[in-house]
């Protein structure tokens, strides 16, 4: 056919690793006649989808990009003065090209394996140091999801830290409206009453307070006395603040705030219709062990050299499960790194200059508006002015619109204007011309305009302390310096651009370049989340099309793209279930059944949604123990709200009883939440919305190709059957307010969460089409079975389905090895670094195991390279087992080996340097050298240091310098 001349399906073969010939060889190796038969063996026929997905045919890269460009052109890029937590910013080009557009950064995984993550850990430590410094607080974490959810996390942190018995959390009326709505949603499940008021009228009895500094509409208050009063009544003071303003404003920590939160967006991250951006949190030292999210800390490696790693890992929901006070897992690492590097790039003087420029331009705008006859409500301000425009309001808005300018309309008679670093003098003239025109005057841009003598920050709250004092923020002078710094950090790390990342449950597949290209188009990047809907037609269409495709793929009826991580999706899905039960008068239904093997975010999300968790056992095959499920259903009776299961299971198996399990729950009046993190094994093959589930979240940052970014961003949409659709998270209107008919509030600050990365998943689906998506799923299953079969005689495969096959991942059981010779899954994981690999998932869902998920994107050569490494490691283990080598001093226990270790003049080990560094001949060609040896986690937790150590710590006498800084 003529259409065959069009390369419409070429992308499929680029996304999927093994060629047809390789697939045939792999099928032969595992003893399956063909792919179709393998799938029949793996997927229970009761859920197998008949017929193809009803999606458009695959498109070529060029065709899909052209289509998307046309769609993007329906977004209108206006000059934005809306503010409200989102501002124009210049992404420094050196950061744009070398971080945001660099696969070395965006294809990395969360730095759980610190030895291969030192580059991004250092970048995150810069970010933490920057946030703590600007906030004037002791410690900052490595990012949260956005300002609204960071405020909600501050509320729960305050609850834990407060001595007050009150259930009330006071939030200032000056907070951004979307923050207040997110707070209310979060409070609803936690028996917290959010009281919104004007703090100037005094505080109620409360356990915590949230202030906004500067106010959403511009004011700047001196909060010292209020903070003292709050502390006197046992309340914790949290403040939502703005990093750029803090260059000029007294730091919250200096006036007594306990917690500071906010968004780092305006530090070089595009608005992107609301996200993704890094939310931040800093707090006093006394809160550190309860702080949500990940925290990078300084420790040392086995050689005593400084080494970074995630600190206090026991804080993560994985350990606390239903006792967790936060469910955050995937955060906003890539965006936090960009923001931290923005500070490195500009340095303290540069950041201060930007802040002053904004502040003085705002002052100039204010005096000019007064000169035109406008009444300006703001007396103290940083970058935002509130104007009493009265009867001229509509005329101003219309004149602005004709000049492609967006202002923030506040009720019928006020307008707010927020400036940012991209605003030029010319822009100010254009803005003043609009205001003049609206009242029938003219603005003379050519006149000599004097700079105002002062900006609008009152002297009582001006910052006296220096900012960004650590040398890391002052050492970059030129772009050459910056380029080399970024390259040097990236070179320390293993990301997907160097090796497969076979992390079970994480689906580290190709993030194709064509998928990434649209995210930096201005039509997507420069849209304010609260821009008038008339300007965002492209986004609306993109969201509609993507939602429709996800409904078709999952078999559900409606989708919300708002949740900005998988865990946030879980939370939103459980709120939908809760809303549904409440609407049916079933308020007592508040128990969530969760299998023992579930990901830690499941029970944590259930807890945050106000549900009690009851654990269901797994049977010896790793499946839900149906008898135990029946017993638990009977036990909880009419309190059953939901069952939360992961499918295929976290054990890597399609359990055959899934439809019966769903029926049992429905018969008892419960709803089924199916965790869709493993959707990569089902796209095109099975639809959870059709085989019994009521709601699922998807991880677009797994199955649908959004890169993991070193630990975020993510998108965790929820898909629901129609009866739950009314309970999807509310979409705030252009003023940031809740629609009157909303049943459930928003779970994220921006109406569509991390909207600017949706083009990635859209492109993936468009380029793959129905046939490509199905082929991807089938190949993911083939690849996992190929690894399982080839490794099964070396390492027991813990769980398999009835036909002895696994789904899209498999668990290698290392416990018997540990029992016989002491070599652990961690030793193997670290030894894999010497072989140039990122380790598989360690100890999830079963302690002492390794879970391998190759994904469809890895080709046969890479699979074989991994298998060869694992087989070679098994031989190394055998030498320990049979006593040929020492049980402690061997290549496994000492792994990974740095160049420094191997080049030491003295060599005291029984094995050779060659055996350590080049266990396979192929490694001589291309060798990854880890920058640090095995990291000592316990040392770092005992001596917690979570900001950049003094520079000497990185110099030659490294260990010692670190020792003194760490214990200081
Ligand atoms: C099974 C499962 N559920 C939920 C999640 C949480 O997703 P996220 O990290 O995006 O919050 C994960 C993440 O790894 C997962 O593997």
Automatic annotation (TrEMBL):
GO molecular function: glycine binding; glycine dehydrogenase (decarboxylating) activity; pyridoxal phosphate binding
Superkingdom of origin organism: Bacteria
Domain Glycine dehydrogenase C-terminal stretches: 776-897
Modified residues (N6-(pyridoxal phosphate)lysine): 702
Cofactor(s) needed for function: pyridoxal 5'-phosphate
Any single GO CC term annotated in Swiss-Prot or TrEMBL for this entry: cytosol
Job of this protein: The glycine cleavage system catalyzes the degradation of glycine. The P protein binds the alpha-amino group of glycine through its pyridoxal phosphate cofactor; CO(2) is released and the remaining methylamine moiety is then transferred to the lipoamide cofactor of the H protein.
PANTHER family assigned: GLYCINE DEHYDROGENASE (DECARBOXYLATING), MITOCHONDRIAL, GLYCINE DEHYDROGENASE, DECARBOXYLATING
Protein name: Glycine dehydrogenase (decarboxylating)
Organism this protein belongs to: Pollutimonas harenae
């Amino acid at each position: 056919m003529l259409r065959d001349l069009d390369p419409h399906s070429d992308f499929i073969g680029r996304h999927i690793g093994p060629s047809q010939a390789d697939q045939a060889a792999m099928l032969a190796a595992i003893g399956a006649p063909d792919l179709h038969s393998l799938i029949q063996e793996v997927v229970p026929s009761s859920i197998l989808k008949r017929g193809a997905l009803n999606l458009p045919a695959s498109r070529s890269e060029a065709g899909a990009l052209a289509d998307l460009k046309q769609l993007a052109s329906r977004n209108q890029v206006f000059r934005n003065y809306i503010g409200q937590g989102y501002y124009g910013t210049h992404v420094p080009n050196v950061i744009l090209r070398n971080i945001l557009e660099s696969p070395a950064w965006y294809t990395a995984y969360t730095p759980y394996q610190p030895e291969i993550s030192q580059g991004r850990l250092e970048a995150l430590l810069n970010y933490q140091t920057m946030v703590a410094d600007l906030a004037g607080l002791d410690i900052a974490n490595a990012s949260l999801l956005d300002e609204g959810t960071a405020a909600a996390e501050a509320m729960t942190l305050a609850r834990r830290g407060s001595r007050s018995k009150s259930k009330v959390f006071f939030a200032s009326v000056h907070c951004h409206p979307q923050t207040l709505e997110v707070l209310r949603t979060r409070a609803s499940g936690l028996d917290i009453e959010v009281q919104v008021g004007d703090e100037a009228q005094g505080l109620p009895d409360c356990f915590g307070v949230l202030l906004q500094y500067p106010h959403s509409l511009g004011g700047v208050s001196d909060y010292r006395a209020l903070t003292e009063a709050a502390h006197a009544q046992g309340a914790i003071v949290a403040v939502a603040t703005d990093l750029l303003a803090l260059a000029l404003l007294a730091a919250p920590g200096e006036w007594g705030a306990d917690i500071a939160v906010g968004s780092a967006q305006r530090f070089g991250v595009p608005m992107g219709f609301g996200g993704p951006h890094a939310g931040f949190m800093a707090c006093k030292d006394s809160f550190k062990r309860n702080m949500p999210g990940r925290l990078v800390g300084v420790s040392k490696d086995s050689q005593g050299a400084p080494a970074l790693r995630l600190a206090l890992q026991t804080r993560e929901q994985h350990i606390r499960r239903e006792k967790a006070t936060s469910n955050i897992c995937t955060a906003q690492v890539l965006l936090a790194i960009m923001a931290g590097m923005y500070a490195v790039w500009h340095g303290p003087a540069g950041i201060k200059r930007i802040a002053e420029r904004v502040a003085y331009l705002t002052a100039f705008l204010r005096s000019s508006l007064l000169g035109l006859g406008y009444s300006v409500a703001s007396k103290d301000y940083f970058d935002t002015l509130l104007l009493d425009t009265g009867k001229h309001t509509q005329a101003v808005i219309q004149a602005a619109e004709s000049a492609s300018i967006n202002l923030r309309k506040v009720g019928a008679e006020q307008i707010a204007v927020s400036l940012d670093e991209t605003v030029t003098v010319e822009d100010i003239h254009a803005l003043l011309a609009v205001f003049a025109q609206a009242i029938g005057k003219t603005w003379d841009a050519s006149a000599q305009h004097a700079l105002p003598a002062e900006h609008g920050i009152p002297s009582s709250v001006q910052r006296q302390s220096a900012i960004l004092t650590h040398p890391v923020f002052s050492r970059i002078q030129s772009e050459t310096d910056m380029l080399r710094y970024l390259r040097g950090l990236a070179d320390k790390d293993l990301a997907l651009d160097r090796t497969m990342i076979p992390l079970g449950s994480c689906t580290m597949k190709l993030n194709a370049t064509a998928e990434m290209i649209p995210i930096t188009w201005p039509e997507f990047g420069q849209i304010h989340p609260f821009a008038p809907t008339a300007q965002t037609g492209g986004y609306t269409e993109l969201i509609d099309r993507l939602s429709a495709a996800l409904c078709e793929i999952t078999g559900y009826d409606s989708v919300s793209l708002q949740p900005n991580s998988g865990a946030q999706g879980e939370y939103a899905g459980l709120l939908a279930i809760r809303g549904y039960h409440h609407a049916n008068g079933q308020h007592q239904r508040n128990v969530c059944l969760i299998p023992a093997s579930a990901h830690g975010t499941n029970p944590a999300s259930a807890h945050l949604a106000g549900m009690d968790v009851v654990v269901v056992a797994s049977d010896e095959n790793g499946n839900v123990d149906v008898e135990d499920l029946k017993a638990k259903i009977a036990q909880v009776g009419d309190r059953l709200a939901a069952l939360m299961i992961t499918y295929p299971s976290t054990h890597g198996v399609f359990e055959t009883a899934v439809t019966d399990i769903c029926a049992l729950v429905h018969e008892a009046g419960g709803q089924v939440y199916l965790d869709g993190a493993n959707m990569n094994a089902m796209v095109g093959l099975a639809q959870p919305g059709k085989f019994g589930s009521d709601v699922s979240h998807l991880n677009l940052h797994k199955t649908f190709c959004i890169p993991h970014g070193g630990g975020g961003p993510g998108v965790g949409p929820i898909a629901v059957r129609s009866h739950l659709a009314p309970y999807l998270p509310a979409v705030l209107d252009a003023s940031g307010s809740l629609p009157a008919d909303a049943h459930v509030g928003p779970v994220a600050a921006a109406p569509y969460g991390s909207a600017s990365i949706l083009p990635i998943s859209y492109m993936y689906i468009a380029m793959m089409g129905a046939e490509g998506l199905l082929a991807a799923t089938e190949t993911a299953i083939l690849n996992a079975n190929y690894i399982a079969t080839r490794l099964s005689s070396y390492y027991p495969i813990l769980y398999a389905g009835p036909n002895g096959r696994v789904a899209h991942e498999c668990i290698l059981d290392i416990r018997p090895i540990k029992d016989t010779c002491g070599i652990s899954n961690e030793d193997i994981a670290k030894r894999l670094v010497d072989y140039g690999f990122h380790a598989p998932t360690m100890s999830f869902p079963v302690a002492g195991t390794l879970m391998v998920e190759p994904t469809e994107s890895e080709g046969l050569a890479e699979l074989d390279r991994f298998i060869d490494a694992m087989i070679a490691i098994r031989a190394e283990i055998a030498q320990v087992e049979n006593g040929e080598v020492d049980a402690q001093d061997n290549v496994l226990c000492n792994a990974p080996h740095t160049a420094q270790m191997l080049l030491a003049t003295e060599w005291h080990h029984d094995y050779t340097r060659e055996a350590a560094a080049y266990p396979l001949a192929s490694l001589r060609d291309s060798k990854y050298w880890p920058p640090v040896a095995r990291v000592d986690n316990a040392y770092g937790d005992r001596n917690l240091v979570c900001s950049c150590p003094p520079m000497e710590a990185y110099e030659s006498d490294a260990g010692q310098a670190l020792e003194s800084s760490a214990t200081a």
